[in-house]
């Protein structure tokens, strides 16, 4: 309460109204609140939502890792390591056997267990392999711009598998990052597509009404009445399996957007119908503003915050759908790498029982989805203080 | 009309009810004292946000909590046996807000009607069900059938046509005026000794407002109960009450008999209220609005709370010293440094 | 009410016709067809299929006719003869496959819905009436995680945990020794042992979102004037909450049946595939992959029908419980 005992608060209120905010020497916390722009208010409220802030930071890191996957990962995603099929994650040690501090790993030796006939891995502790940063590794094209072989970290003379290897002896950490590229970006691209369709058709439907509105609404009713997953499955099954990765990627995006735009279009239409009746829209019409001006100047700002929130919630849904389709074999096809295709390996329960690290991509998917939900939650609270 | 030797029903002493919000603390009621006497009526007037409704809610212990809380004061309620003998004095603020004791007071000793008849009834239950419920709560030996008969009887009393039919109606089938009548029936069915009416006519048409006021007055006399009438409308309060309490930002600014408030208003705020409403008898005058708007509820001023809007403020005095409520004439209290 | 029902049911007909067309022609989209695919397969594995035999198969499956004619033949078979077609992949009639699989699918979806309500409604009510209490935070957090966590991935992880920690294979609905055994108490117990995980996983998302819906609705309702009115009558908190706001807060759930139920049916598809349950999900996957058109078309059509029927049930329930709609919209 003491904050508000500032003398400037008790200024005669009708006098205060006449003084522009900038001229007041020291605005109190409370006044800052009154004079803040809508965007500032949203930002303040958002930063108060700790989980959302932390989640956005983590998501940004995740996306950066995906963007610079070649640099961050120690190997190329198709490189095989002879004799390292199904190797468990490499243990990183920090104290050398002789006592000094140095992050290092040991080489792994594969042996057949004579009793179970399964391969087991043992560490060869005779030689320390230090982890080095910014080392030269396999060559790659940095962001498709120039060739380089500098990688974030690496180990000489011994492999390092942070997440273990898959059954074709490829590094799962490298492949998880590579998969993140497709899985994470498909959410953005898919949502962009749904967004354009949804806002366009929903806006038209809501603003013009009449026959157009009826037609679009019936279409939405119909599309929403078809259960999503079976529809996606049949559509995806219609795609030729041998399409190149990029074409497949866009085809899957389009399929996922077929239903994705409906919800958004509904929201946009509803909001427009509601806002169209508001006095300020009528006032703008009365002042002779054009349709376009009314839509962009008066209606859109009325629900941009709402749109941003619903977009934030659709991204994880898209990511999840892609993962699901690829997981059951109807989405991206190997050799393309996405989290869904990586998880195909995990379909076999016995394989997972012996190589549980195959489930790591699932943890990435779940984490990403939860993080997006936290951010969406924070944005919703920030955009609309009355929505709980 | 009963004289002032009527026995005390409720005695509120230095009530403080605060709301603890993210943005700060709102002192909605900040040291309010008054008494309500049997069969008499007290009018409470003030702008929205002055704490008049919160005062009433505190008496019923139905202040939304959190964020609201009665932090200090006493509300002593004089309870009477059914036969008429004096039973006990209860400090309502000491009771658990969901406890059995306060529940036996709500609806039984004090009935309350609200501003929004549109939303004050559950849309999923019939009017009769909601009225009879009060009987079933407070009279353990009443059967469902008896309660229903009582509800029909009460609906008839508050002027609802065909009560035996409308008892089974859902709220959305009734007009606003009818719903308010039903709410009055609900508040009065257990024969409370005090009726709190919290702006019961604000949401109604003017013609219906008159009917409802008439009804409340008629029921007050015939049932011999006390009335606490809350409104922002001077004329209505004047018509309904024996004495009037003027509130501003959680403080009582002036408290006097209705005649005194009308003939000899003292506080600059009361005077300002007078100037801002048209009078029927008086000559046509320009209405003078009260300058400025309510200060932020979070602000706390060292001096008089009305300082920023007062037309007789004394800079350096009024904004430094908080005035106290002084009895300047018998039964006439004012909180203003002009009279200290 | 009757009129309303009849009108709603009549409105279903064109939707279902449209859906059957979409379902059927979507399946036909990919180049090639199942019979050619199968004959190819047989020939590759050295089995001699004569051209006559191939021709006979083509005719049997109507593949010699144009797609539209095939569609009419398929739909008239369903409507007139109750014959959903023949699945070459299973070498069984589609009816037989559906009869085996549909009941378990519906049972799992309905039980999951029931499970989610039984769990979620009390938690939601507790959460709202004890807002900001530690348990409220726990419930809100769990609800949040539950909404966000994809069921089929959790199914993967859960199956692995159960298998590696307890040696319990959660796959399928029956342990191997009971699959072909006649129904007995032991088999039923075994079924229950396998059923709880899919129920939990299928219902989890809906449980979590129901907790949120109930909590938020109830919080809104608790501040409404009619609650204060009821309180000022002297009603005890417990009775008050259950009689008034809870009913108001739960009613909207009934309207969500219309999309939750289809969502559950759709959601089970994935989880059932992961846990290889004997439901419709794995059947659909195999049928789409193999272009087994009559089977896949039938499954998609049935799932769509379940969706629209679910929507109808939800709307009718809402009309039944809310007098405002009952007297308002239908009165006219």
Structural account:
The complex is a heterotrimer of chains A (388), B (340) and C (332). Chain A folds into 2 domains: 80-168, no CATH class; 175-382, MetI-like (MetI-like fold, Orthogonal Bundle). In chain A, a hairpin with a 3-residue loop joins strand 3 (119-142) and strand 4. Chain A is built from 14 helices and 4 strands. Chain A is of the alpha+beta class. Mean pLDDT of chain A is 80; it is low at 1-27. Chain A is elongated. By secondary structure, chain B is α/β, with parallel strands linked by helices. Chain B folds into 2 domains: 1-109 and 194-278 and 287-293, Rossmann fold; 120-191, no CATH class. Helices cover 29% and strands 26% of the residues of chain B. In chain B, a hairpin with a 5-residue loop joins strand 4 (68-80) and strand 5 (86-91). In chain B, helix 3 crosses helix 4 (144-157) and helix 3 (127-138) runs parallel beside helix 6. Chain C has 2 domains: 19-83, no CATH class; 104-321, MetI-like (MetI-like fold). Helix content of chain C is 78%, strand content 1%. Chain C has 14 helices and 2 strands; from the N terminus they run H-H-H-H-E-E-H-H-H-H-H-H-H-H-H-H. Chain C is globular. Classes of the chains: A alpha+beta (388), B alpha/beta (340), C mainly alpha (332). Chains in contact: A-B, A-C, B-C. Chains A and C meet through helix 7, helix 8, helix 11, helix 13 and helix 14 of A and helix 1, helix 6, helix 7, helix 8 and helix 11 of C.
Name the overall outline of chain A. Answer: elongated
Element pattern of chain B in H and E: EEEHEEHEHHHHEHEHEEHHEE
CATH class of the largest domain in chain B: Alpha Beta
Strand composition percent of chain A: 5-15%
Quick one: CATH class of the largest domain in chain A?
Mainly Alpha
Low-confidence stretches of chain B are none
Biggest chain-to-chain interface with counts: A-C, 42 and 54 residues
How many domains make up the coordinates of chain B? 2
